[in-house]
Amino acid sequence: MLYREAGDFKTSYRDDGQTFPIRLDRWGYYAILAVAFLVVPFVIDSYWANAVLVPFLIYAIAAIGLNILTGYAGQVSLGTGGFMAVGAYAVYKLMVAFPGVPIVIHIVLAGAITAVVGMLFGLPSLRIKGFYLAVATLAAQFFLVWLFNKVPWFYNYSASGQINAPERTILGWAVTGPATTASAKYLICLVFAVVLAWVARNLTRGSVGRKWMAIRDMDIAAEIIGVNPLTAKLSAFAVSSFFVGIAGALLFSVYLGAAEASEAFGINKSFLVLFMIIIGGLGSIFGSFAGAAFLVLLPVFLKNVLVAQFGWPTDLAAHIELMIVGALIVFFLIVEPHGLARLWALTKEKLRLWPFPH
Amino acid sequence: MKLKLATVALGAVMAAAPAMADLVVPNLSYRTGPYGANGTQYADGFNDYFTLLNERDGGIGGERVRTPECETAYNTEKGVECYEATKGSGALVYNPLSTGITYQLIPKVAADKISLYTPGYGRTSAKNGKVFEWVFNAPANYWDGASVAIKYLLDQNGGDLNGKKIALVYHNSAYGKEPIRTLQELGKKHGFTLTELPVDPPGQEQKSQWLQIRRDKPDYVLMWGWGVMNQTAIQEAANIRFPMENFIGTYWSGSEVDVKPVGAGANGYKALTFHGVGMDYPIYEDMKKHVIEPGKASQGGQFVGSVLYSRGMYAAVVIAEAIKKAQELAGTPQITPAQLRDGFEALDITPERLAELGLPDFGPEIKMTCDNHGGSGMARLQQWDASAGKWSLITEFTEPDQEVLDPLILEDSEAYAKEAGISPRC
């Protein structure tokens, strides 16, 4: 009744092709952005920032990155953790080597370095597909983590192999280092997440994205209609790694502040981001956010309910939490194999007909 | 009217304050994951000592101590979450039992002005209180341990390690890498060669490392392991028939959970420690009476007296003594985190004081000052007797080689000070 196209007339192609063609959606989108930028920074405390919103935004960026590669271009990757490590170590080396350059430039450069590394490891994708490619990217994961552990130059020869983020500021506000306020942490991640999601949305609905999807759906057919598999696959690896590298850079510099390769960027991280896009929905920007929210927020929520509300012992709660999250993953995949994004799309379909379905 | 309201409000605040004025010492523990078997015993000892103080003495200086627990699973991201979740509740000091989480927290505690107490783990150079104002790692740190182990080997070899081969099997993380620099320096000084054998965490897979040990035949093997890595290493050493008395683990590779799975094969294995073990201490009479028998022990008291339980308890003892000292200095039982830091810096746990606490000869004397946050660094060795199923202490407390360690600590802490922009105090 309220959620409908009727009466929402489009008078130009531009209007017709917009991301949110329904007025209510559009308003909702603007409302969420307004709340995220104008309300949340003033009410956020350090628990909400550090335990909930900052990891959510960072993982959302990583999930969008992997979704571009796996969801849109159809190339399975298990190297996400390794590529995040590249972003983290790149931003660390840049921050320490060029303290005068603004941190935002460092983070973007870290993404660019990761893009180059990602393209390098994407080369095998021109020859191998599917599970075999997954194994090749798995090799990237192990190789990169090993490299950052093995070569002391990457961690500036510190005794423990740890990297620590020094304090850097934007317009006088600290965004990395211990003095960072909760809202500064949140805002820098939010800006990156919004801009990158906007970029991803516009890439995927343009000619680049269509080429990726053509390769995903059937690479031989795509080649016949004139899609160059070399540029399409490598551009997917580059863009995806750029996103993942930025996520890694933010994870290290803004969120954790100190990291070591095998602990923070191990194979678990690759699986975590892969689960996010599978649960959220392959080939969907919204799905990346939904999947990240599901896997970041649910454990924290369950922990708070079980330990703080019910007063259970922490070990029991930790075990039950794993079981509940696991069961929910299985449940969602059975009920809706296309992820939360599909569930959301179905809800919207139904809403359009409400309250008078056929 | 306004004044009246303000008085009422002030009165309400003052009335409410004592009710929530417990001393809060969060216990960032881990009872799950590959390190859970070790973490759970430590957490029990930590909880039980504060339970004892609450039950027997009504807390410290009349204030009850709360130890809200938070599960980190030895994971740095969960550690950060736990820190953020508990710091608002008036947390006085953190003891996360993880070198990785410690590295995360070192800059954060300095910004939030909360102490971090990391006995036997964490960042070694935090011993330099001039740079690390909020971090304490007495009584001993990794480098002390490495040096004490080498001193013991020197003793065994008549003071000469020239031409000997020593292998270091280590957890490939910040924790395991800590002793390398010290061992390299000591190798230069005493003329032994050091082979470094990293084991990727969690460490169930180390066949190739032990194959290399079988081939190279080092005279001694040192181990910096934790969690499942310890049992696996000791099992592998038993499999290749490496002489157990030449195999020395660090503080964290010498508990019952590490050797028991290997059975008789682990007999003679040695490990470093910085405190006593077993239940032959008078404190356990009180512990039985006030904590275990009334059923108030953490997890039912199934690990009382074990190595890691004793270590958790020892950490709690030091924290409790620091709180007491801080209360004396501040003249009030309700101390702030900053006052606790002063308490730590003025801490002096003499052997007499330890005996008074019911733990005679349990640990070395701990004396901390503004520039020394690491105490004397004394440690001793214990050896596993598989048939009796217990650890026995085989050396007295030994001083580490400060001549080698001090310059290293200075160098590393100064590098941190430069990176983080800290100007040394004291």
TrEMBL record, chain A:
It is a multi-pass membrane protein. The keyword Membrane applies. GO terms for molecular function: branched-chain amino acid transmembrane transporter activity. This is Amino acid/amide ABC transporter membrane protein 2 (HAAT family). GO terms for cellular component: plasma membrane. CDD domains: TM_PBP1_LivM_like. InterPro entries: ABC_transp_permease, LivM-like.
